[in-house]
């Protein structure tokens, strides 16, 4: 093998190693935060760098349109769910408890019912499940969800105070578990 081919092969090997090992080349703080992800949150991903989010609107309970810019300055746990989605329904009580536990001027749980979820159906669901701390946002045409890269439900996106996506998970999670609360407190620190 010539020297040029050896250098190229070495560069390719290094690139493949970096892709196979998510902590390769990362700073220690990001590696430490990733180590805090609960063992049962197998699909929870913390991004290497913040990502932009959509400016698409979704609907408030009163029918008015809002977008994520209205939460600027807050860490947001943005959950996409539906009344007909069993894993979504299962995790809603833990999201409600998360909002009751950590909700503040700097931290909010934002739940958005994606697809056909009429407000009366959402209200009945919230009443039946005794959900008192979560908003009743909707995205009936799923434009907001699609622009956020949601391809199934539930999906939860963590957005930093600057309005950028920093983490994401697919599937059900236990949001009020002690180890998840510890992770979310760490992520939301200034």
Q: What would you say this structure looks like, in words?
A:
This protein is an alpha/beta fold and 190 residues long. The chain folds into 2 domains: 1-35; 38-187, Glutaredoxin (3-Layer(aba) Sandwich). It has helices at residues 3-20, 28-35, 86-102, 119-129, 143-147, 178-187; strands at 45-51, 58-59, 65-66, 75-81, 107-114, 137-139, 155-159, 165-170. The strands form 2 sheets. Strands 1-8-7-4-5-6 form a 6-stranded mixed sheet. The chain starts with a helix and ends with a helix. It is found in: Cell envelope. Residues 47-189 form the Thioredoxin domain. InterPro entries: Redoxin, Thioredoxin-like_sf, Thioredoxin_CS, Thioredoxin_domain, Thioredoxin_ResA/DsbE_sf.
In CATH, the homologous superfamily of the largest domain goes by the name Glutaredoxin
Largest sheet: 6 strands, mixed
Instruction: Note poorly predicted spans.
Output: 1-26
Radius of gyration: 19 Å
Helicity range of the residues? Answer: 25-40%
Intertermini distance: 51 Å
What is the second-level CATH architecture of the largest domain?
3-Layer(aba) Sandwich
> How many separate domains?
2
Q: Spell out the helices and strands N to C.
A: HHEEEEHEHEHEEH
* Mean pLDDT value: 88
Strand order of the largest sheet: 1-8-7-4-5-6
Q: Enumerate how many helices there are, as a single number.
A: 6
Beta-strand share of residues = 15-25%
Please write the CATH class name of the largest domain.
Alpha Beta
Could you tell me the number of beta strands?
8
CATH topology description of the largest domain: Glutaredoxin
Can you tell me the overall shape?
Answer: globular
Structural class: alpha/beta
